[in-house]
């Protein structure tokens, strides 16, 4: 799948975000090594702590289905009432989850501001991950 197609999948995922507290909707689309796509959106909770980011939602869905090899992810986000206009990089917790399952040099993270797509490796966004 091209990065442009993956961004479109992330935009679709963003439409079902449950973000009544922050008003910030995020969508992610994760591609496995064999080309399967898992969408994720952020899911908030009034207590905030139990909330989950779009990226982790996509990863947890995939891992719960037995997936362990991943190629790339696209992430889009912004105020719920607006179209995408800024880049929405993954938070530190999501980066750490990615590092559990992905190679730092060959897993790609695509961020879109609605016009352009910037691509990073996981290693660029998390140069010193915690792990074994």
Explain briefly what this protein structure is.
It contains 4 helices and 5 strands, in the order αββαβαββα. The chain has helices spanning 3-14, 54-64, 92-101, 122-125, and strands at 24-32, 37-41, 70-79, 108-112, 117-121. Strand 4 (108-112) and strand 5 (117-121) form a beta hairpin.
Task: Characterize the structure shown.
There is one protein chain. The chain is 28% helix and 26% strand. The chain has one domain (3-125): Cytidine Deaminase, domain 2. It has 132 residues and is an alpha+beta fold. Strands 2-1-3-4-5 form a 5-stranded mixed beta sheet. The chain is globular. The model has no long low-confidence stretch (mean pLDDT 96).
Key words describing this protein structure:
single chain, 4 helices, Cytidine Deaminase, domain 2, globular, five-stranded mixed beta sheet, 132 residues, alpha+beta
CATH superfamily: Cytidine Deaminase, domain 2
- Helical fraction: 25-40%
CATH topology: Cytidine Deaminase, domain 2
Q: Report the sheet-strand fraction.
A: 25-35%
Question: How is the biggest beta sheet arranged?
Answer: 5 strands, mixed
SSE blueprint and pairings:
Elements: H1 3-14, E1 24-32, E2 37-41, H2 54-64, E3 70-79, H3 92-101, E4 108-112, E5 117-121, H4 122-125
Parallel strand pairs: 3-4
Antiparallel strand pairs: 1-2, 1-3, 4-5
